[in-house]
Amino acid sequence: MLKKIALPIFILCCTALTALAQKTDTLSITLENVKYAYPVKYFPITTEGQDVRMAYMDIAPTQLANGRTVMLFHGKNFGGYYWTEVIKSLTSRGFRVVVPDQIGFGKSSKPFIHYSFHQMAAWNKALLDALGIQKASILGHSMGGMLATRFALMYPEQTEKLLLENPIGLEDYRRFIPYVTTEEQYKSELKTTAESVRKYYQSSYFTLWKPEYEELVRIAGGVTYSADFPRWAKVAAMTFTMIYEQPVVYEFINIKVPTVLFIGKEDRTIVGKGLLSPDQQALYGQYRFLGKQTAAKIPGAKIIEFDGCGHIPHIEIPTEFTVALLGSL
């Protein structure tokens, strides 16, 4: 009789523990319960009949101000939270640093709109104008590199330097990635779990997994528990389509501002990689070649390469990256 009673109690306890774990790990899709290292403000935007807001940090220099500003554009799977050490390094050298979460990402609104690099660039320009900043160096990582490129093409007079950290879009994905509709991509995004995020980060972003990277997984995976996760997944699908349909690779030759590429040579990032066979995957996303090819396309561009480093140099090799970044500024 005791065994019959004990089993349901055991099951009930396991269920309660699972629910508690889910509650602990759950994050809102606008990351209200993720603490950023610096105060977050919001820039109001009206687009397609909707009132939305863009989260951003505006951090003053901690040492004697040099009068210069650096704006940081995050990658597709991230927000301003992963720039903390870069911000500290820049502000300690006298730079003002502006760190937006792009619309659709991080703490910013997640509207159903037509996502466009041109529109995002215009919003970031409007933010700089509102802050009274006439010129800034733009550092873009991954998807942020595509956006930074578009910004420099649209606003060369406001771009002091273009700094590209393992940017995606160095290839035209339409040439070799099978087309999927936004709806098909949405169904794929809905299957995201914390564990699938971890596996992707381990296999795609870093050469060696370290415990401190778990915080990135906690944030990216935490939104999958949210009741609003379908909205997050829909926006993720929309921005996947934006990347696929709006290449910048053909316009590198038109860049007119001083440009530096920071390339982790072990990076093998391909947007839509899962749609390719292993043999096809081996043909693309080879940053040890793509970095040099891209630098050759951009007039006067410089390239700094990092051996034994993957997609996110500023996290995987922070000291080396910081030295290279400050030297380039």
UniProtKB/TrEMBL annotation:
Annotated GO CC locations: membrane
Key words of the record: Hydrolase, Signal
One Pfam family recorded for the sequence: Abhydrolase_1
Keyword Nucleus among record annotations: no
MF-aspect GO terms: monoacylglycerol lipase activity
Gene3D superfamilies: alpha/beta hydrolase
InterPro entries in the cross-refs: AB_hydrolase_1, AB_hydrolase_fold, AB_hydrolase_sf, Epox_hydrolase-like
Repressor as UniProt keyword: no
BP GO terms, sorted: acylglycerol catabolic process
Positions of the AB hydrolase-1 domain: 69-316
Domain of life: Bacteria
Segment forming the signal sequence: 1-21
Protein name per its UniProtKB record: Alpha/beta hydrolase fold protein
Organism annotation: Pedobacter heparinus (strain ATCC 13125 / DSM 2366 / CIP 104194 / JCM 7457 / NBRC 12017 / NCIMB 9290 / NRRL B-14731 / HIM 762-3)
Lineage: Bacteria, Pseudomonadati, Bacteroidota, Sphingobacteriia, Sphingobacteriales
